[in-house]
Amino acid sequence: MDKIIVRGGHALRGTIPISGAKNATLPALAATLLTGERVHLSNIPHLKDVTTMLELLGQHGSAITIDEKLGVEIDNSQVNNFRAPYDLVRTMRASILVMGPLVARHGQAEISLPGGCAIGSRPVNLHIEGLRKMGAQISLDEGYIRAKAKRLRGARIYLNPVTVTGTENLMMAAALADGRTVLENAAREPEVTDLAIFLNKMGARIQGAGTSTIIIDGVEELRGTQHRIIPDRIETATFMVAAAVTHGDITLTDTDAESLESPIQKLRESGVVIEIQDAGRIRVSAPDPLLPVNLETCPYPGFPTDLQAQMLVLDSLAQGVSVITETVFENRFMHVSELQRLGADIRVHGNVAEVHGVDHLLGAPVMATDLRASASLVLAGLAAEGATTISRVYHIDRGYERIEEKLQALGADIQRTSG
Ligand code: UD1
């Protein structure tokens, strides 16, 4: 199995481009199931999760043409299999995103329940209840969600707690439903807005995406179109933290500073200098020492839970004590015990991490436990003295495109080894 070896202590310098957003790509790929006409998507990142979603579409009967530079073209005129099998769903929970489109256009879907997950129980009850409200008949059978509906009908649906993929699944389903659907307490993430823009290009009638009330007037059918996926805000901020903890000076291009208001504010609080050259180009440099920052993860526009692990590394190297509170997921501090192996002083009390900054971290062998946790280990390795060997790096390949190549381009000493 692949490992990543990082030898820390090099200040990162240089310019790298940011990839398309994983969390915008996955729903957009699922949304192509809503039409039988060809759809073209560009700025698709090369990631394991994207390959998994393409494999899932392939199983449903999608014809997919991949052009490394131009993106993917998908033809769903021959979709004939409505089952998302356990083997794929268990590797990627976002597979549940095909449920809404399949039921809306084909009247049926059979989706494996996602099962266990390293960051808490993560149920999908809101996806199911929402479709039920839209008239789908749903049963749970042998580990599968079986959903059927002649035609979905519009409904008023209140989502509690706020759910990103739940909002996306129901928005896609509602696009082809009979009548008006109102999603209340909807997720406001930029990826939800990007999906709404894409669906509207396909002929959907969606208003209010980006606010907590989304109104969808169902249409009879959707058509083919082209769409460019937005930049990955989590990848962008991960590189910003990399610059911060190595006291480097880097420029990120092809990104979108507007979607990063809260992380930029927190990084500035820690003393990091962030220059937004234009919305798509951000220069980041960092002084030594860094200042500790307190934060609480929240749904957008709050501080993203997908950056919590990375900020723990920053706070571990800051001068003073800070508190990080995780409110979105239970059990999302799995990376703490690995960071402690490098010398971090982090004390977890329930969903609160109390971080006592240390002078330096020391390289050690560590194990990635989930996608964002593995990014935090790479960041810690970049800042640590000596070598950090990270195993189970398949987690990082799910969400970061060519991370070691991008870091090498910034002067990091990072290698991947197999075996
Ligand atoms: C998405 C992102 C993930 C990010 C998360 C929170 C994708 C593909 N993934 O995941 O990277 O970490 O948003 O920003 O976009 N919940 C329920 N019932 C449900 C659904 C969710 O109780 O039916 C709860 C979850 O357990 C969690 C909270 O709602 O506590 C938020 O989860 P949700 O927004 O649904 O996360 P995902 O959409 O799975």
UniProtKB/TrEMBL annotation:
CDD domains on file? UdpNAET
**Which molecular function terms from Gene Ontology are attached?**
UDP-N-acetylglucosamine 1-carboxyvinyltransferase activity
Q: In which pathway does this enzyme or protein participate? A: Cell wall biogenesis; peptidoglycan biosynthesis
Q: Which residues form the Enolpyruvate transferase domain?
A: 6-407
Keyword Ribosomal protein tagged: no
| Domain of life, source organism | Bacteria
Q: Which residues carry this modification: 2-(S-cysteinyl)pyruvic acid O-phosphothioketal?
A: 117
**Where found in the cell?**
Cytoplasm
Q: Which reaction does it catalyse?
A: phosphoenolpyruvate + UDP-N-acetyl-alpha-D-glucosamine = UDP-N-acetyl-3-O-(1-carboxyvinyl)-alpha-D-glucosamine + phosphate
Residues where UDP-N-acetyl-alpha-D-glucosamine binds: 93, 306, 328
Q: Which UniProt keywords apply?
A: Cell cycle, Cell division, Cell shape, Cell wall biogenesis/degradation, Cytoplasm, Peptidoglycan synthesis, Pyruvate, Transferase
Concerning its family, UniProt says:
Belongs to the EPSP synthase family. MurA subfamily.
What is the purpose of this protein? Cell wall formation. Adds enolpyruvyl to UDP-N-acetylglucosamine.
Q: What is this protein called?
A: UDP-N-acetylglucosamine 1-carboxyvinyltransferase
**Source organism per UniProt:** Candidatus Magnetaquiglobus chichijimensis
